[in-house]
Amino acid sequence: MKDVQYFVPATLDEALQLLDKYGAGLSVLAGGTDLVRDMNLEFKIPDGILWIGKLALEYIVEDGDFIRIGAATRMQTAANSGLLQKKASAVARAAGKLASPPVRSLATLGGNLCTASPAADCGCALLGMGAEVQLTSKNGQRIVPLEAFYLGPNSTVIQPGELMTEIRVRPQVDGEGSAYEKIGRRQAMTLAVLNTTSRVKLDSNGKCLAANIAVGAAAPTLLRIKTAEKLLVGQPFTEEAVQEAANIAVQEIKPIDDVHGTIWYRRKVTRVLVERTLREAANMNGGNN
Amino acid sequence: MIKYPIHFTLNGDPVTVKAPATVNLLTLLRDYLNVTSVKFGCEQGNCGACTLIIDGEAVNSCLVLAHTVEGREVTTVEGIGTQDNPHPLQVAFTEHYGAQCGFCTPGMIMASKSLLDHNPHPTREEVVNGIVGNVCRCTGYNKIIEAVLAAAEKMS
User: Is the N or C terminus of chain B more exposed, i.e. has fewer CB atoms within 10 Å?
Assistant: First the structure.
């Protein structure tokens, strides 16, 4: 086996210098639930490992227009965050549904995004929340909306030398809610066969002011269903509108048959979950928002 | 292969051991330190047989790169009780037949301990959610859940 270099930078500057120097040869280790698993199974042995556990990248704070979430914030921290439960409910719920408690005390939100699984729990929730991410390199930083972040399965716009440092979500305001739902092959410890996030803002008359819908495990990347979102905005948020939005989602997804589920099943479940999350987000059935 | 030193606290005692960068904590404990309560199951974080506690939180030791425990506190089932002085969870697992073949038991107990440390009076559902990452192929789980609930009662 080859010698693998291991780096534990104490500061972000140091980490960025190392990433600049070694580029794609360095694998960033956050929680390890993907990278260490891949190393164990010998899917991937990196030339070097950069552990970001000492960079103080675990925080959740409300700051002006955004909730700022450190990229190395772990699932259990996100799931238990009162701020996220109240103002980004779908994210807290997705974090609490990922795998199991021992995995949730390791796995990070940034890792969930960077692994770029089309079925990612928090990836789906953050995309549905309209989140954006901060990518930092030695030469500066850029903000990328999650909609423009994914290129394909396990592929993102992150360039060699860049590190995801922060995730930003606009907090829910009065009249606004969000919901995340997942169907797996069993209740817990499971990959999503299909997952969905909705975020809805209504005025006092029940008219829809804003809507986001994201569907996961139904295409090569997590998907926003923009056509359905446009249909909802400006209209009274009725049961008929919810069902029409779900119809569009069923047509827009590009699911595959695989060991987790069939195309037929994924389309069926998409309709159910899009409707359910839209109702929950709009509090139409006293849901979990 | 180059080995680098790691210093950490294992069940209350300071430990220094040299290991390559790629070694995970499960392998470090079993093959370098002869701590065999942590079991080698799936090495993917799916089975929970290698569950232990780092700084008060249950984790799958197979998913932890050994070098990242530098300076931290690692607790395995050896660290929470002995044959002469067992932990209430260990007593409850024997009294309630929560262990059959025993392979999942150390991980089950550490996951349960972490649960009770954070939530001393769990409901049955909370116990189920606490050990949801630990696979047992013998008991059907009911005996384990009863054991954890009994231990919680005894410890309160």
Answer: C
pTM score of the predicted model:
0.96
Mutate to test the interface with B, among A40, A115, A190 (most CBs of B within 10 A): A40
Q: Which residues pair with B7 in a beta bridge?
A: B16
d(CA B126, CA B71): 31
Count other Cβ atoms within 10 Å, centred on residue A15. Answer: 25
- Among all residues of chain A, which has the CA nearest to that of B54? A105
ipTM for the whole predicted complex goes beyond 0.85? yes
Residue A4 distance to chain B (closest CA, Å): 6
List of chain A residues whose C-beta atoms are within 8 Å of the C-beta of residue B132: 100-101, 187-189
Q: Do B74 and B106 sit in the same domain of this protein?
A: no
R_g (Cα) of chain B, nearest Å: 15
- Mark which residues 15-34 of B lie under 8 Å from A by CB: 20-22, 24
Residue B123 and residue B75 share a domain:
no
Q: At what angle do helices B142-155 and B105-118 cross, to 10 degrees?
A: 40
Claim to verify: residue B8 and residue B70 sit in the same structural domain: yes
Measured in angstroms, the CA of B63 and the nearest CA of chain A are apart by 5
Domains of chain A: 5-51 (3.30.43.10), 60-169 (3.30.465.10), 179-281 (3.30.390.50)
Contact A100 B62 (CB under 8 A): no
Q: Report angle CA B61, B67, B68 to the nearest 5 degrees.
A: 70
Q: Which of B1, B44, B115 lies nearest to residue A3, judging by beta carbons?
A: B1
